[in-house]
Amino acid sequence: MASHSTRLKSNWVFKKASEPDTAFLPVAQFPTNIHLDLLHHGQIPDPFKDANEAAVQWIGEEAWVYRTTFPKPTTAGQSQLFFEGLDTFATVKLNGAEILKTDNMFIPYRVSVEGHLQSHNTLDIRFDSAWRIGKQLEKDAEDKPLFCHNGDSSRLQVRKAQYHYGWDWGPTLLTCGPWRPVYLETFTARISALTVKSVVDTSLSATVDVTAQVEGVSAGTIRLSLVCPDGNTATSKDVSLTNGTAHVKFTIAKPVLWYPVGNGAQPLYTVQATGVAELAFLNSSKRIGLRRVEIVQNPIKGQSGTSFFFKINNVPIFSRGADWIPADSFLPRIDAARYRAWVEFAVKGNHNMIRIWGGGIYEDPAFYEACDELGVMIWHDIMLGCGAYPATDYFLQQIKVEAVTNLQALDHHPSIVLWCGNNEDHMFADRYPSGYDADDMDPQNWLKTRWPARIIYDKILPEICAEHTPQTPYHPGSPWGGKPSNDPTIGDIHSWSVWMKALEMYPYQYYPQLSGRFVSEFGLKSYPALQTLLSTITNPAEQHPQSRTMDAHGKSASKTPWAGDFRNIAMYMFENLRHGYSLAQYVYASQLVQAEGMSLAYVSWRRLWRGEGREECAGVLCWQLNDCWPCVSWSLGDYYLRPKLSFYTIKRAMATLAVGVARSEIETKRQDDLTRVHIDKEIRLQGWMSSFSTSAAVVDVLVQALDVTSGKVVWETRQNAVAVMPNVSTEMLDIVFPTSVKAERSTIVAARLIDPATGTTVARYMDWPQPLRHLTLAKPIISLSVDGDTVRVSADQPVKALQLSVHGDEDSVEWSDNCVDLIPGDEQIIVAKGLSGRKVSLLHYGIAAD
User: Fold this and answer.
1) Cis status, amide bond into 479, omega within 30 of 0
2) Which of 764, 846, 768, 834 lies closest to 806 in space, CA to CA?
3) Residue range 133-162: average pLDDT?
4) What is the reported pLDDT for 680?
5) Backbone CA torsion sign across 189, 102, 122, 27
6) Which H helix or E strand runs over 445?
7) Class of domain 3-185 as given by CATH
8) How far apart are the first and last CA of the chain?
9) What is the DSSP letter of 633?
10) Which residues form the Mannosidase Ig/CBM-like domain (predicted)?
11) Which is nearest to 263 in space by CA: 641, 692, 610?
12) Among 34-38, 260-264, 549-553, the least confident range
């Protein structure tokens, strides 16, 4: 008896289906897709460069054939072909005989090839145009979609990565091909499934339910084992197969628990299934983490609505991080190292959660493994978003199979703490005449509305999740909670009153007022790194923020094809900054606006994590962490993993220990109700400390008001030995500025938390007069010293947003901090990994417009 698996990765060739007489060409790699192969052979320009995206649109309307050859296996037993992923409408033939047709990119397919194998075998896969099939399905549909935001509406008919159709940050690149591995498996018996369901109860003891299913034999013995994180076997049991199934439940009184990064370690157990005696060749394993997950939705003291926060192992967690899109338009290019680099990027930025957005894919195992190992929680959307999907029997069956398949494959990952039904479909159903009534709980009524797809999110998916992943909560959509679905007092919200919503487009200074119980989207766009743009736009004449090519790399929707990104970015820059118009100046200024606005949101919303019964905001996830191509977008890091300035300001805002201040002008007295002149006002200053640690701390608090031009301290207050309460935000200051201090126009308010034992600043925050464009800053003398990888920087006058870089070799240095504000008497120390004593270049707001 035996089991053998061969990865079919050699001899692959491809060609256009409509040109049967042309020669096949070898693929660029395997797995692959058609764009990568055409690019490899120089048959198309790089769609990521210049404005080449438009020149490759024809590819998506053609059919393509992939072929490989392989010998007949020598191992005895039955043979199957296993396709991990085919994108999307594929017809598979083995030696001329059709063996499989596919219509879902997200589902692996397994097919018996008994009776088809020869001594030498030819495997052909024809990929038909997803665009043309989708358009025909849409044309034939009885009901047209009520809404579709981003991409062509035909995408709603097709179970393919929705972002391939284009989005407001990504290109339209309708690719196809064998995007995941293909295997030839020959066996007399094999472990067809290893299912692990772990439950951690309120006492933090655990049970691990293990089921192994064996194909090919119905009798025999399987050894089911649980191996501890230290490599020692915790428990093991030999189980006789019953109808091909072996099952055991392990109990662990004191498990080693998995925690999010910042709250504990990430120990991983291993579940093993191995055959005994004549089945000794069988082996399968999964790594798991033991954790308890709850979503707490309790009343908020003194406010309407309820909380929405995660509890991991009975510990309340403030979720902070960003939303994730696929890291490339061409998925086979993303290897395990790149996935890990992105997750490490998030962890270095003090993130503890990533939201996998519903217009992408169920990610590669390497992504989930990195999150498991590094302690990053995953909010996981099902792959549905921004559209009124059909609710035909065919489509609903597609979703059921897709959901069950992927939940079973991913259920063991401790990092996945939430399954979410969709991205923004409830929200758009609220805005259109869909007939959506949140109070109507009759699914048959839903099917009679113009949004019948509600049955997917509110019935089908919750039932599937309850059956297949009961230990992980389900949430119907994002945003979802109250009436309307984007109610800020219930569930999660997408906070887009800044940047989007044409009738609003509030200044980013409004962010403190735009919170919700859990903010799962918000953001500001910026340009990527200068070196990214210079390598992407190859014509020097087009290397300008207002060029046609630049517009091609900004995808935000607009009434005109060229105004969207440029208009919004320019407006926010012009409102807030004095800036120049060279490409380098535009990059810096746009990134500074993004950095200032988004960090203000994180600092302000974190303040609302006030403790039990007062979890007024319990999570902040920005849109978005990453890019799928070089572009103008909301990302914190561009396609090449180059951090924007916002990465650093948010990193500081989400540190374990943080401080914040805010000032406001308040009317105290008015001569009468007719005057507009005789009004008394005062400037109120409030300050707070925030800790994500579960341990208390003691700090000294120094708050200073400094003249914005000279840096002279005009007022200060100091408190020594102040207790920082664990895992909450605590108000520490609420005063009225002395009338002698012109606090609203000409002073910086700087707050520092200082370690009493060492005198080291452990957290700092600076509140500058707004908007920054009103400030005329003096030219400071900046002192900078470099010792290996350590940089010390200080200034004799205030400096706004100091950016440190190494010209010509930027990617070789990893900065622990950047985009820092300086005031006299507060030297900052930055570690620059890889600097090795080289010269550091400086840029700051005061000179960026010169």
Assistant:
1) yes
2) 834
3) 96
4) 86
5) negative
6) helix 443-446
7) mainly beta
8) 77
9) B
10) 688-774
11) 692
12) 549-553
Task: Render pLDDT for 174-223 as a digit per residue (tens, 0 to 9).
Answer: 999 999 999 999 999 999 999 999 999 999 999 999 999 999 998 999 99
Q: Which is catalytic among the residues 53, 185, 424, 616?
A: 424
Question: Which pair of tokens denotes residue 418?
Answer: 């939430």
Which class is domain 298-523+600-626+636-653?
alpha beta
d(CA 235, CA 266): 20
Residue 126 host element (H or E): strand 120-128
B/e letters for 793-832, b = 16+ CB within 10 Å, e = fewer, are: bbbbbbbbbbbbbbeeeeeebebebbbbbbbbebebebeb
612 among known catalytic residues: no
| pLDDT of res. 731 | 97
777-850 fold: Immunoglobulin-like (2.60.40)
Q: Say if residues 761 and 826 touch (Cβ distance below 8 Å).
A: yes
**Rounded distance, CA 185 to CA 7, Å?**
9
The CATH number of the structural domain formed by 189-288 is 2.60.40.10
> The tokens of 79 are what?
């043979």
655-775: CATH superfamily: Immunoglobulins (2.60.40.10)
Q: How sure is the predictor about 739, in pLDDT bands with cuts at 50, 70 and 90?
A: confident
CATH 2.60.40.10 maps onto the chain at 189-288, 655-775, 777-850
Instruction: Give pLDDT tens digits for 562-604.
Output: 556 788 899 999 999 999 989 999 999 999 999 999 999 999 9
| Rounded CA separation 199/162 (Å) | 34
Q: Are 346 and 621 in contact (CB under 8 A)?
A: no
How does 553-566 read in b/e, with b if 16+ C-beta sit within 10 Å? bbbbebeeeeebbb
Whether residue 17 contacts residue 71, with contact meaning beta carbons closer than 8 Å, is answered with: no
**Which tokens is 446 given?**
């839903």
3-state secondary structure 488-550: CCCEEEECCCECCCCCCCECHHHHHHCCCCCEEECCCCECCCHHHHHHHCCCHHHCCCCCHHH
Q: Where in the chain is the domain with CATH 2.60.120.260?
A: 3-185
Which H or E element spans position 196?
Answer: strand 190-200
**At how many degrees (to 10) do helices 583-606 and 645-653 cross?**
20
Q: Which residues are within 8 A (CB) of 16 and not within 5 positions of it... i.e. 6 or more apart? A: 22, 62, 63, 64, 65
Q: What pLDDT, on the 0 to 100 scale, is given for residue 502? A: 63
